[in-house]
Amino acid sequence: MSRPVYAFLGPEGTFTEAALRQVVSPDDGDYRPVGSVITALAQVRAGEAQFAVVPIENSVEGGVTATLDDIAGDEGLQIVREVLVPISFVLVGRTEMDLEEITSVSTHSHGWAQVRNWAAKHLPNAEFIPASSTAAGARGLLDPETHYQAAVCSPLVAEQVGLPVLAQAIEDTAGAVTRFVVVSQPGPIGEPTGSDKTTVVVPLPEDRPGALMEILDQFSTRGINLSRIESRPTGAGLGSYFFSIDLEGHLAEERVSAALAALYRLIPGVRFLGSYPRADQRRYQVPEHTTDAAYHSGQAWVTELLGRSGT
Ligand SMILES: O=C(O)C(=O)C[C@]1(C(=O)O)C=C[C@@H](O)C=C1
């Protein structure tokens, strides 16, 4: 049987590849490096890859907008898993050189955002040259035609390319983590594990006072904690937004399905992007009155009443 194809942001040595390695070994999955998050997701939509591994948020820099916007675009994708990768950066140079001599440095824009204070202090003369990934920036230094002199990348890439490390642990915030998701075409939803997340996209109705409050109310009255909520422009015009929301719980849990059903009644354009296990396996506290058992006993009571009414 052929191995499933995993499209991911390459080339070899990206943080995305580190995430992919947590998902499947190269013996069991076909690693396909591509040039962008959008290409990886497009390959899954087109059926050219079974899975894409893409960054979705960073603990310091926040949401990865290319991913959030693309997966929100239609119901052609489903999140099946999440993976966490600790992030630390080094500075590599084409040759050994003093930091003050560096006039241009390349990396991924999300990586640059995580070292910008360090760079302002230690690379005062350097211009930032955006690369399609941290590994692409570093590997570019191997090409004699490349005009920049240094790159910000993971310690692993530095080792792979064999270039001199000019500075280590240059991230502005120690202990940063990037969260990646594994995405497939819509299909069966995994069983609840007791430590799950559900991702939904909710278009914010325009000209409806209190719409955000109404959305949040569906979760709070059912004791559902939100682990991420971000507003993004739909692109349709100023004032047109959607919310990308991660909530604690699985669609198969009563409080979650009840909240989503209520949300659908309010805003039929709501999109379900998947229920999947939490990477940190942390269990959440469900208030007593919103456990499945509480929902079942409430329903049993109403069913009994309905029996008496003869309907
Ligand atoms: O460039 C890479 O190595 C990536 O995997 C992309 C990416 C991102 O898009 O956030 C992943 C993790 C780091 O936060 C920096 C860059």
SSE blueprint:
Elements: E1 5-9, H1 15-23, E2 30-34, H2 37-45, E3 51-58, E4 62-63, H3 65-72, E5 78-86, E6 90-93, E7 104-107, H4 109-113, H5 116-122, E8 127-130, H6 134-140, E9 150-153, H7 155-161, E10 165-167, E11 177-184, E12 196-203, H8 211-220, E13 226-233, E14 241-248, H9 254-266, E15 271-277, H10 292-309
Parallel strand pairs: 1-2, 1-3, 7-8, 7-9
Antiparallel strand pairs: 3-4, 3-11, 5-11, 6-9, 6-10, 12-14, 12-15, 13-14
Helix pairs in contact: 8-9
The protein binds prephenic acid.
Unique ligands: prephenic acid
- Main sheet properties: 6 strands, mixed
CATH topology of the largest domain: Alpha-Beta Plaits
> What is the alpha-carbon Rg in Å?
23 Å
The DSSP helix count reads: 10
Please state the structural category. Answer: alpha/beta
Number of structural domains = 3
> CATH superfamily name of the largest domain?
ACT domain
If classified by CATH, what would the architecture of the largest domain be? 2-Layer Sandwich
The low-pLDDT segments are: none
Number of E strands: 15
The secondary-structure element order is: EHEHEEHEEEHHEHEHEEEHEEHEH
**Average pLDDT level:** 95
Keywords: Amino-acid biosynthesis, Aromatic amino acid biosynthesis, Lyase, Phenylalanine biosynthesis
Domain ACT: 200-278
Catalytic activity: prephenate + H(+) = 3-phenylpyruvate + CO2 + H2O
Domain Prephenate dehydratase: 5-185
What does this structure look like?
The longest helix is centred in the last third of the chain and has 18 residues, at 292-309. The chain has helices at 15-23, 37-45, 65-72, 109-113, 116-122, 134-140, 155-161, 211-220, 254-266, 292-309; strands spanning 5-9, 30-34, 51-58, 62-63, 78-86, 90-93, 104-107, 127-130, 150-153, 165-167, 177-184, 196-203, 226-233, 241-248, 271-277. It is built from 10 helices and 15 strands. The protein is of the alpha/beta class. The chain folds into 3 domains: 1-86 and 176-187, Periplasmic binding protein-like II (D-Maltodextrin-Binding Protein, domain 2, 3-Layer(aba) Sandwich), CATH 3.40.190; 90-167, Periplasmic binding protein-like II (D-Maltodextrin-Binding Protein, domain 2); 189-300, 2-Layer Sandwich (Alpha-Beta Plaits). The mean pLDDT is 95. The chain is 30% helix and 28% strand. Strands 1, 2, 3, 4, 5 and 11 form a 6-stranded mixed sheet that branches. It has a 5-stranded mixed sheet with strand order 8-7-9-6-10. Strands 13-14-12-15 form a 4-stranded antiparallel sheet, with helices on one face. The structure holds prephenic acid. It catalyses: prephenate + H(+) = 3-phenylpyruvate + CO2 + H2O. It holds the Pfam family ACT. Keywords: Amino-acid biosynthesis, Aromatic amino acid biosynthesis, Lyase, Phenylalanine biosynthesis.
